[in-house]
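hi support,

uploading two proteins for the ticket. first:
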Amino acid sequence: MISIHSPYGFLRENIAKAVEFRDSPFRYFLTKRCLNLDIEREILEWFETDAPWRLVETDFYEQYEFSMLDAALPQNLSRFASPDYLQALRNAIATIFDISLDDRVALLAHKLIPGQRIAIHNDYLGGDETHRLTVQLNRGLSDEDGGLFLLFNSFDSNDIHRILRPVSGSGIGFEIGNNSNHAVSRLHCGERYTLVYSFYALRRAE
């Protein structure tokens, strides 16, 4: 297993010490730093140069993305896709939410450039992902640059519960449901990257 003292284990250790947990308007936690600074820098350098970004457009967002589990990762980042690392991370999420998760983990990388945003949505598809962890990565975005992570009390875009600043290395984990409404405000300057981990609750047999 990966040591919690390794750069990769740093994410697991800090998630297990989530700085804040809330039950309303949906279950979520916040943590101030998810990654070792050296690893964060290496990910950003790859994202900015050789990562295989592809543009994806839907009815509520336009962004660049790719699966990190399907991509040819640089050697120094390959352990992000290792079974041991993903299992340790899955165990940390299961502990925080006091649930059982199955073996599946998805990991997508997202990128927003100026002019792009993600409108209000809840990620709820019914029978698909049940929990998510999003880790922000950027070169020091300010509030004026946009890319703010917005949490809502309802599907009304004016009914804002909380605004999270685009602090690189910070993370939010949440339980996906029909009330897990969130969005990302329009980016005005710079590039906003995220690591998006998806987890699946273990469902009882019918």
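and the second one:
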Amino acid sequence: MSEVDVSRRRILGVAASLIGAGLASPPSAQTRDKLTLVVSSDEGGATDFVGRLLAHGLEDRLGAQVQVINIAGRSGLAGAELVARSRPDGRTLLVTSNSTFLTAATLCGASPAEPESGLAPLGLLATNAMVLCVSPDAGIFDLAGLSQLARRVDSPLVFSSPGFGGINHLAMEMLARRAGFRVEHRAADSVRSAMQMVLDGVAQLAFCSVEVALPYVEAGMIRAVAVSRALRLPKLPQVPTLDEAGVSGFTATIDYALFAPAGTPAPVLRRLGAASQEVMSTPAMRRQLAIVSMLTVGTGPDEFPQYLVHERAQWQDLLEVNRPVPQPGDC
């Protein structure tokens, strides 16, 4: 088994155990409705993990067959745009993260991935912290050591992320500004590729979601320097928060949401939104997400505009003032 398969096998294994634990039942032979759930990432990543767990739960709640299709590319915009162009009948849905519907969509200009135009939000599903990862060969043991190294060398530190404009990308840009060092971004085409760039020494550091970073940290292949949420992670109790490490008030989470095409009838949106919130709020779902340090979120479509206002304010500097410039192919 190759190194890049470690996190994918871990996540898919958890998803399989969830089905066996009875969170969801397979569709009956009499199922008539068929839904397509587009996941805007490759297989095995966190977005895929959340999407597949939701799909199995919706099969049980709605009595429908739910087919999951992975469409990665351009920080999730490829999958989001496909759903935005789909027929607004409630049969094609999207699971994506704020890396797509908030930051990448804004930095890449007008896009049907924007909730205000091409997509109707059904609510937030889950939230995920990130881990600041470095190669053990880099000789970095904490954030202070990272800052010292950055100031000693003439060139910027190279970091990888799953794509331009995502939260993984912008969190590193923000950290560098706050901590006073220079960085250079190398965009990968997937979560696993971004991690592999650190493992291969192509990049020196990266912000990775917890469930991706954890198996590599546990195997000693990656060193965890800090976590991006306000509290330490139960799975990595020895790793400080960024606030504890010296960057006051710094938090950054990857948030996953469910969308339908704009124009979907309101009764259909209400039915799908209520079903998804019921699935995500079950004790079984909370337990399974906790295995990879994710938390469920109970934000419905009515609260979604307030969520966007809050998040845009947090990333305003990088989205409006010091916004990264996309390279050809990024958007």
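thanks. also noticed: The longest helix spans residues 46-62.
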